[in-house]
Amino acid sequence: MAAASPAHHAIGFITAAAVAFIPVLTAPAAADPKPSEQQLRKELKQLNAKVDKLIERYNLKRVELAEARKAAQAAEERLATAEKALDTAEQRVADLARLQYQNGGGMRLPSLMTLPDGRGAALLEQLTAEQQAMVAKVAAARDEKKKAVDEAAKLAKEIEADAAEVTDQREDAEDVIKDIQGKLEDLVPFATGRRSDGSWAPQLPSGSDNITPRTRLMKTELAKNFALPFSVGCFRAGSSGEHPLGRACDFMMSTGGSMPTAGNAALGDRIAEWALSNRAKLGVKYVIWKQRINHGSGWSGMSNRGSITENHFDHVHISMH
Asked: Which of 163-177, 227-241, 242-256 has the weakest average pLDDT?
């Protein structure tokens, strides 16, 4: 075999050296797994509880401040009463002292004030003691007032600091809540049967509840996101619209044809908003709520059908494609 040329040796050296400096490529580190829906909902619940605690703490401080201010006002009123009584006592002592002075330094009082057995001096002593008692009472009232005013001022400063802290913490918590809610919305699955042009293929009702798979998915996902106060009615024979087709559900916000409470009315607003925001995923056709209908492009008023139920004030109606 022919000996390798110097050039060949050089090429081999360069190649080996180059290989020695080639960095070893490692597989990228696996990304942290996305939190499950259950984890996200648990975190959302904890954050909502945290916000509620912050609000409760702030509100209790407000109540304490109101009580302290009330105490300060009562102390001020007691001080005014004590000062008025002191003025009266001082005036009585001054009047008696002046009468004594005018009548020889207390040796003889006017007939109106003359008492036997030297009791005029005792009267003056009694009035003087009364005055001293009133002075002490006024001093105590002033101390009480100062204490109450100082307490109210201290509470006011604490509340101001607490309010700023609560606001900051609440904003932080609400930011995280929005983030979690966004992730929860991302977890809402896509319903089956959507065509490439955006339309939806018809589905047959199935199961013991006699509703379509898309309707069942919407109902299930909505129940995950909201604590429903009353029953949910979907399939209904002998009526018009989507109910006999298994493509609609009524989410009741009250019973007996009555208007819902303010809290349940607000819940109905959120349910309607959720259904519309997820309409493209779930296949929501339209929503009816509070005598209005929304196909996804805004609310339109509806004619009066004559009752709270018929006008959809007591339930949110969600129809599916």
From this structure: 163-177
Q: How far apart are the first and last CA of the chain?
A: 81
Q: What is the pLDDT of residues 66-118, one digit of tens each?
A: 888 888 888 888 878 878 877 887 787 777 667 667 666 554 444 445 555 55
SS3 state at 66: helix
Q: Which of 75, 197, 205 is nearest to 139 (CA)?
A: 75
β-pairing verdict for 292-294 and 299-301: antiparallel
| pLDDT tens digits, 119-154 | 666 766 777 787 788 788 778 888 877 888 888 788
CB count within 10 Å of CB 291 equals 16
The whole-model pTM stands at 0.58
| The predicted structure's pLDDT at residue 14 | 38
Residues comprising the chain, all counted = 321
Domains of the chain: 37-186 (1.10.287), 213-320 (no CATH)
The string of DSSP letters for 171-234 reads HHHHHHHHHHHHHHHHTSPPPS-B-TTS-B-----BTTTTB-HHHHHHHHHHHHHS---S-EE-
